Amino acid sequence: MSQPWPAAEFEARLRAVGERRYHHLHPFNQRMHAGQLSPNDMRLWIANRFYYQKNVPVKDGILLSKLPTREDRRLWLQRIIDQDGREGNEGGLELWVMMGEAAGLERDDLWSDRFLLPGVRFAVDAYVTFVRERPWLEGVAASLTELFAPGIHEARLEAFRRHYPWIRPEGYRYSESRLSQARRDVQHGLSLVLQHARTREDQERCVAALEFKCDVLWSLLDAVQLACEQRRAA
Ligand SMILES: O=C(O)c1cc(C(=O)O)c2c(n1)C(=O)C(=O)c1cc(C(=O)O)[nH]c1-2
Q1: pLDDT of residue 1
Q2: For atom 20 of ligand 1, which residue has the closest CA?
Q3: CA distance 146 to 190
Q4: CATH, domain 7-233, list 1.20.910.10, 3.40.50.2300, 2.40.50.140, 1.10.10.10
């Protein structure tokens, strides 16, 4: 059996996954940031990404139920509150709906899944199923795409301001809120993974979980991109 990687090497291998296959590299994302998407393309992306958003607190509820300690559950609980909100602070899902409205969608367009593409549904459901069926350590490792998320939120905010002035500024609030939340979440997630993946086999399963999660995000954009192309060709 191989020796476990030292913590620094394990962390570097996790971070390298993002450099190779995080969705900032996806052609659809690159076109978004270059200002090349039409209002209808943007709306389709916002409506479909909402299905991911609304399933994040569902998967976090599943993961919460599997975490071994009270301290970790307390920290993880904050993720659900961040998305689902509470009275007086409606949370991330509401901010995402506000982005939809700022871009010309109706609130019900998002909640009803009216524009949800089959490929997006399959990709997101696969993430929730993965977290349900795999050990919690792999579920936490899958969430570590949040290591790379602040960069994409920053680039998206800049792209919105520069290229999509027709989206009203309330549309920025989701990404603004995630900048600090993602950094806090990932500190906890990364420390759990570094601490609990003790064998090389555990570590390799964590790297594979993160690759799987990158594939979920990649597939989501594949489906949206294809639908945009088909709509233009029709
Ligand atoms: O906009 C993005 O590109 C992006 C990516 C990701 C991600 O990398 O999974 C998340 C988010 N946003 C996000 O807003 C969010 O709340 C979130 C939670 C999680 C997760 O897996 O637990 N990922 C992400």
Answers
A1: 72
A2: 143
A3: 10
A4: 1.20.910.10
